[in-house]
Amino acid sequence: MNPRVTAVTPMEDHILLLQFNNGQQRRMDVRRYLAYVVFERLREPAFFAGVQADHGTVSWPDGIDLDPDSLYLESVPLGQAAAA
Hints:
The protein is mostly beta strands. The protein contains 2 helices and 7 strands, in the order βββαβββαβ. It has one domain: NE0471 N-terminal domain-like, CATH 3.30.2020.10. The strands form 2 sheets. It has a 4-stranded antiparallel beta sheet.
């Protein structure tokens, strides 16, 4: 099992700064999910900013959440550039 989210901070351009229970801080670009209907509301800046850490993952109102393993595996450590 991958580490789980303990805190989240929303940033501009649909970026999440994530704190994991192993002490790592990582950066997650959520833009890849915006093409899916279930994630449409995340395009709204005010809605995206309402993200919360929730039982090891992140969630928004209306039951929108992301898989906790994907959050870890698709994010990059702070200070490391994301793969193009």
